[in-house]
Amino acid sequence: xxxxxxxxxxxxxxxxxxxxxxxxxxxxxxxxxxxxxxxxxxxxxxxxxxxxxxxxxxxxxxxxxxxxxxxxxxxxxxxxxxxxxxxxxxxxxxxxxxxxxxxxxxxxxxxxxxxxxxxxxxxxxxxxxxxxxxxxxxxxxxxxxxxxxxxxxxxxxxxxxxxxxxxxxxxxxxxxxxxxxxxxxxxxxxxxxxxxxxxxxxxxxxxxxxxxxxxxxxxxxxxxxxxxxxxxxxxxxxxxxxxxxxx
Length: 247
What we know:
Elements: H1 12-15, H2 20-29, E1 35-39, E2 52-56, H3 60-63, E3 73-74, E4 88-94, H4 103-113, E5 114-123, H5 132-136, H6 150-157, E6 161-164, E7 167-168, H7 189-193, H8 196-200, H9 203-219, H10 221-225, E8 234-235, E9 239-245
Parallel strand pairs: 1-2, 1-4, 2-3, 4-5
Antiparallel strand pairs: 5-9, 6-9, 7-8
Helix pairs in contact: 4-6
């Protein structure tokens, strides 16, 4: 099967740049691990540069967008990591586990190849109603498959800690909820093109949502409905950092 990101994300680095505050949380969670495997690595965002990193990515298109000098990459899937048990001090995954064909197996593979620690930055589907984007414009998002409960993710990974990661209003990494304080960004096809949700929903539904949002912003309806959002520095939209300590 062709990897999903071979079909989308051609300009991924233009809008999907590491958010420094999230990056710091991820790197801190890795502790003193010196060797790290990044599973579902994409273009290399969030990979620490002060450690020995091996990236795992199935999409040639994403591999081709990795910057010069980035970590060596192995073309493989999370469900079948081509490494021995305990090959790395730590394993990490950043907003990629929801794309794996067998999510549970991929999480267990992360556990298998890590001697000491695993770190996963992911999203809790129980928080789906917290987003104005889904609530008011993209209700079809609730129907998309692959929404594993957070406690299941933690169980497969063996996570011992779950941290809340609020999303800053000026988040640099343009993932699905990143523009919660900048709704005009969702009108930009380049922004939507690097968010997988928009590729997974029917095109007609996305087009209708964009026009609805455009009209609400022009009329002031969005601003009136989201007064509690305006002026906030950050919001908890369900993003979580799961940390498994195997030592």
